[in-house]
Fold:
Amino acid sequence: MATPFVQGRLRNEYLSVEIATQCAHCGQELHLTVDNQMNWSVREQESQPIVFIPEINWQHFTGATITEDY
Structure:
C-alpha cells in the first residue's frame, strides 16, 4: 500500500499500483488499485475490502519517519 505513496513523493509524479490477490476467507479474486495520494478502488463491485490507511497531517508532521512517530 505504501509503494505508490512513497515512490510518488520521491519522484514527484503520479503513480498507481494494482494489487492482485484473493480473499483469505472465501478465495474470491480481488484487484485493488492504490495511488500516490492514498486513494484506492477495487475492481470487483460486490467486494467490500477493509483497507487501513493512516491519516497524517503532513503540514504539522515533524518526525523523521512515519514509522518512528506512529
Observations:
- The chain has a mean pLDDT of 82.
